[in-house]
User: What shape does this take?
Amino acid sequence: MNGLNGVGLGLVGDIGGTNARFALVEFDGPDPRLIEPTTYKGEDYATAEDAIEHYLAKVGVRHPDQAVVAVAGPIEHGSVHMTNLDWRISEDSLRRAGGFRQATLINDFTAQALAAPRLSPKDLRQIGPLPTSGEGDLAILGPGTGFGVAGMARRHGVNTPLTTEGGHIAFAPTDEIEIEILRALVKQFGRVSVERILSGPGMEDLHIALAQAEGRKVDPLPAKQITERAVEGCADSLATVDRFCAILGSTAGDIALALGARGGVFIAGGIAPRIIDLLEAGPFRARFEAKGRFVDYMKSIPSHVILHPHTALIGAAVAMTPDGRASIS
Assistant: This one.
């Protein structure tokens, strides 16, 4: 594609706390087509604009028509200071850097929500029994470097994403062990949000706090090693991942209740696919359904793990379309 003018092409991005993903997009029929999706480490670039300029040089495309970039953090007046990465990004700076006619920032889980109704069965893994219903509003949530939450209201054939910062709601323990975990994390952080546990850094803190609550001694480990060792059967790491899945189940159920997400819950982010067999076999679904008088209500809600690696890029591409722009305006 070296040296091609970008007329008719768009650029989409998905910038999280660890990775920055970009792709070109063109519309051939009703669905967007991603071209040359590429992942970069955010820490390798001083700014998002540097990463975008590198990507455009790599694919050899000059001045795509427009850009939609999904970012992890609240967007205010067309700019964002990333929550888990020290980048400041604005729509104006993106326009100048890429030579775009138009550049738009959207929340990364808003992008996940826009993509969710377009995912095919091969892009998903059902967790728990097949429910009797799949109609209604959706919840999209998930742990990665942080914890994202969005909704999707579906009315009369129109899908409208709900942008939230639900990852920063308070953690609600459900048993004595989790009360002790909360006590330990309160001493460390003060207020304990869901993201303080349901994220990569949160899993690392959970590993220590859970062992202390259960009278065990463990060494600090990065989240990647915890998940790898859990999959291999290491008892200490498996205990951490099982508790992580349990808390994820309770939280997902709470969010489904809050949003009235009777059409389904979609788990996004980088962690769930790595532990998907443990997630399915473990306490996630039981804790998801354990809502007292609302057990039957919860049993009817499907839950899925998203397996597609570029869902937020698809959602950013959807946001380029007239229907997508209308739904997030």
Residues 235-259 form the longest helix (25 residues). The domain at 120-306 is CATH 3.40.367.20 (Hexokinase; domain 1). The radius of gyration is 20 Å. The mean pLDDT is 91.
